[in-house]
Amino acid sequence: MDTETMYENLQNDLIRFAGSIARHNQEAEDLVQDALEKSLKEEELLDLPIYKQRAWFFRVMKNRLIDDRRRDKRLSGWEEELDFPEQPLAINRLEMTELLSHLTPEMGDLIFKRYWLGMTSKEIGDQLQVPAATIRYKLHFAIKKLRDILEEE
Amino acid sequence: MKQSIGNVGVLNLLNATEQSVQAYEKIGNVGLVLYRSGQSHLLAALKIGNIGKTVEVPDHYSYYNGTLEIDSDYLDSIDEPVKMVLNGMLIFAHDVRPEQLSKGLLEIIVNGEIYAPAKLAGQVSQQFPEGSREVKVYEGAPPRLENGSITLSNAFLEAAEEPVHLVVNGMLTIPKDIDAALFNEKIKKIAINGMVSVHEEQETLLHRKMDSAPNGVIEVIPAGYRVLKGALRINSRSIKSFRNEKLMTKKPIIFEADVPREALENSISRIDSKSFIVCSDEIEDLIYEKLERLETEVLSYTNRFILIEGEEHWSNSQFASLQEPASLIVDGTLRIDEDVTDETIMNKVETLDIFGEVQVASADIKGALQRKIRANAGQIVLTEEKEAEGKPQESNNIGELAL
Questions:
Q1: Domain stop point among A52, A80, A108
Q2: Interface ipTM
Q3: Across the interface, do B390 and A66 touch by the CB < 8 Å criterion?
């Protein structure tokens, strides 16, 4: 199969998929264009069955859009303000003390400060002299672990 | 030897002395400290990390944590003033008369909520001004409190003799088949501290009964979606039970390698997932077209996949016994033993997706694994770093500590 045939075969699918994930036509056209350019560097793509070609293009377009959205967020400074809602776990506070015993001291300490004392990730970060993003990252894991424990119970 | 304590929910210093305080070297963090006037020096003597809130309990006042309901009979039965600091909820029953309150026998400082019938609201507000409290008014029967997880059913509504003012501390689920007329008739108001899960079709119904946004989260299930509570594995046989369905989930969906394209096309029309989807590369393109959310990870495999959900240890011989390279998906904790070599990783691991944690013995293995990473929402850590972090805490978290 040559490049031109591949594009002809996929054209309608690519435009439809890009349109379904993009916010407007211009963004959809950019996604298709960007994916086509990337595909020129992937010679082995031509030898793949059509369903794998489709999957490759869809994945590339989706990842590009995720990158764009992340960059938009960074540029507009939203990320720093974002924090977890204060009550992600709807449980009694005494139960929470018991739950904390399943975590390492460091994780338990972070959860207590964030969700019991109501400190923001930035305040905790300032106190521990680490970036707020690191605190959010660690809280994310601790919350996931707590959720798993709650669901098991 | 002095004791060190991690986190304490409520630190009760009401009966503390200088000696009792000396038994403790350090307390990590405290949610609420109760102390009497003249005792603040004891607080200074304790090494405490962070304190959420302090409440001074005046002399001769007792302390109560929880929900207190006061009715007319109770007020008739007391002659001496009741002096109390209440942390939680105070409910005045419908039969309490204004003149009973006017006697001034209740001296309660409330940190939390006071529920009062409409006829008493103004008086209650004036008579209990202290503490960080919020006065809420109810009509009809006093609010019904539900703690934990509750699902509202038609039977629950039918059983209610009069319209219910429902206060939920936890999770409220309103099922799809709830009778709208019955809901309107039997629910007076709903207040939520936590989370409420509601189908899009019933969202208006719910909002009509809420005075304010919930203190927490509303999860709206889009119209026509079926919610999956746990992880779902689908094979060529089980997929036949789906008929053009829309699925919503926070858990993984795993498609076995034998699921044919045509069957998938006919069985599932949309997927709204906050987790990830595992599928063979033969149906990956179809899955992308069904996704409602951009951020849902699609993890495809060519030969086989291994999903690690709990905690597993893998040795070199386990990896070596794999006949062909596998896609490794870690949603729990994977500990890779010391004997595993770079070569084994290179030959036996096709891709690595991390949503949990991978613990490795050396930086070399960490490097080899990093070359295989596809999705990474988790972390790879060195075992020695993990051990330095410490083991889970043992009984050093205390709900209420009285010194």
A1: A80
A2: 0.73
A3: no
